[in-house]
Specification:
Layout: H1 15-40, E1 53-54, E2 66-69, H2 76-91, E3 96-99, H3 110-120, E4 126-129, E5 132-135, H4 139-148
Parallel strand pairs: 2-3
Antiparallel strand pairs: 1-5, 2-4, 4-5
Length: about 150
């Protein structure tokens, strides 16, 4: 009877695979930073006084109102921040529209459309003021942006 010799490999780590995972995570981090810089922060020359950035025209919104968007399923904290913001703006005599979704015009420029998607999928509530948006802004930023136009 013939026997085959079987040799077990050590239980060590696959260093090559680990390096690939680390490189992937680094690339993913740089990619996320690139998107943030070029679609949100990279529009410094077009930011309004309150730090709001241009987004495509939203359909069905009042031009004279501040729109506060809190997506369905948002945290209780986000909803509370939106409610507090709406109340403070109304006290200032500023018209406010609360909503759970916004539809943007179809002919929007692709950079502005991508920026809108990133903003709306980020920290909430997102506030829109006359064609510009900012995620979870401070009341002072909203007032500055509203009064500048």
């Amino acid at each position: 009877m013939a026997y085959t010799k079987v040799q077990a490999k050590g239980g060590g780590c696959d260093v090559g695979g680990l390096i690939k995972i680390i490189l992937f995570l680094v690339a993913l981090g740089y990619g996320a930073q690139f998107v943030k810089d070029h679609y949100i922060d990279g529009v410094a020359e077009t930011k309004g006084p309150g730090g709001f950035v241009p987004v495509p025209s939203a359909q069905g919104l009042r031009a004279d109102a501040v729109t506060i968007v809190t997506a369905p399923g948002a945290s209780d904290d986000a909803v509370a921040r939106g409610n507090k913001m709406a109340a403070a703006l109304k006290e200032q005599g500023i018209p406010v529209l609360r909503t759970h979704q916004v539809n943007f015009s179809g002919g929007a420029d692709s950079v502005a459309a991508a920026r809108a998607v990133l903003l709306l999928s980020g920290e909430q509530p997102v506030v829109l003021v006359r064609g510009r948006a900012k995620p979870n802004p401070k009341l002072d930023d909203v007032l500055l942006e509203y009064r500048a136009h």
